[in-house]
Write a structure and sequence with these properties.
388 residues, alpha+beta, 27% strand, globular, ATP phosphoribosyltransferase
Length: 388
């Protein structure tokens, strides 16, 4: 029996508030090294689709988004799902806009350049992976993580070794550090694109004789080619490692990463309108992510009164909702109530079974899009970081 005809026949509900790569270079780098990057140009102003390099001051707010790859696609999907669709009339241009956010420019950049340009002051906020912030931000205190879990781009930066040869019985970072093979004359050769995080991690784990070969991709082939002994790279499922006879080791995860929203502290404090835009984006993100994999369940149920029906629901943990069930009388029908709860998608069928077992009928299920709290905790945390 469908719920809608039931309500039409039995009367409307009263109340019913809802609660709830490029390959390896031949350059070897000592564990003690200095990384220098290209000089970042002074702030530029976008005028009629062109870049004006003559202006060092700007009034517009700049958001950096990944320009290519899965991270770029997933970021645009998140913004679309939060009703913040990016308008990009000319795909050849690097600049776009979001109509709902006034005075905001969207700049499409490589993830590492987003971080670098935030450090230099050319961008104000950005969305990138935590691994990118940690590697290219190098602990810069001006970079503040506004949202640390945007629910996509999950991966881990991990050290991996071959399954055979001298590493056959090496299964932990401690065992790797205790190997007698690594000396000043013959250091452990590491292939990686993470030349800031990797040396720090290895040193902290007692591996001091190390040399690095910088690379951007296809690292799994490096040990087999004799170019490196081990690699440090991003791992998602681990399938590529297995297919290339490599393995992760216990204690070898340097960083667990996913997409994050990051902002410049200086910009947040000084650039007019940035705090308001950051607050709105944060609230939209939080509301949407909170609603992921959640479903609204509505049903009819007979009972003596609202309290009795609610207590019956609360005897079953799956039917308690986010903050408790909503129970409302159906107009014109004595001892007949409508109930509204929120349940996780993975527990949906079991929840419906329990609901029917205690008298629920005409069950209607619909996905949730947003769950707005009174205030997002991450906003309060940001204000504390800014001392506001």
């Amino acid at each position: 029996m469908s719920l809608m005809p039931t309500f039409l026949q039995q009367g409307p509900i009263i109340g019913g508030g809802f609660t709830q790569s490029s390959f390896l270079s031949s350059t070897k780098v000592s564990v003690k090294f200095t990384i220098s990057c290209c000089t970042i140009p002074s702030p530029m102003t976008h005028v009629n689709g062109n870049v004006d390099t003559t202006s060092t001051e700007r009034s517009e707010i700049r958001l950096g988004l990944p320009s290519k790859g899965r991270m770029a696609t997933d970021t645009l999907d998140l913004l679309n799902n939060c009703q913040l669709s990016v308008r990009h009339p000319n795909p050849r241009q690097y600049v776009a806009y979001i109509p709902q956010l006034e005075n905001l420019e969207v700049w499409f950049q490589r993830p590492k350049d987003i971080v670098r340009k935030m450090v230099s002051g050319d961008l104000d906020i950005g969305i990138v992976g935590l691994d990118t912030v940690s590697e290219y931000g190098e602990g810069n205190e001006d970079l503040i993580i506004v949202h640390d879990a945007l629910a996509y781009g999950e991966c881990r930066l991990s050290l991996a070794v071959p399954k055979h040869g001298i590493f056959k019985d090496i299964n932990s970072i401690e065992e790797l550090a205790q190997m007698p093979h690594w000396t000043a004359e013959k250091p452990l050769r590491v292939a990686t694109g993470f030349t800031h995080l990797s040396p720090k991690f290895l040193k902290e784990n007692g591996i001091h004789h190390v040399s690095f070969s910088t690379a951007d991709g296809a690292l799994e082939a490096a040990p087999a080619m004799g170019i490196a002994d081990v690699i440090v790279d991003l791992v998602s499922s681990g399938t590529t490692l297995k297919e290339n006879n490599m393995k992760e080791i216990e204690g070898g995860v340097i960083l667990r990463s996913q997409a994050v929203m990051v902002a410049s502290k200086k910009s947040l404090l000084r650039r007019k309108g940035l705090l308001d835009i950051t607050h709105e984006m944060l609230e939209r993100f939080e509301a949407h992510i909170s609603a992921l994999d959640q479903y609204t369940v509505v049903a009819n149920m007979r009972g003596y009164n609202e309290k009795e029906v609610a207590e019956r629901l609360l005897t079953l943990p799956l039917l308690s909702g986010i903050q408790g069930p909503t129970v409302s009388p159906v107009f014109g029908f004595t001892n007949y109530y409508a109930i509204v709860i929120c349940v996780p998608k993975k527990l949906l069928y079991k929840s419906v079974q329990q609901l029917r077992a205690i008298g629920g009928n005409g069950v209607l299920v619909s996905p949730l899009t947003y769950i707005f709290d009174e205030e997002t905790p991450r906003w309060r945390e940001l204000l504390l970081k800014l001392e506001l």
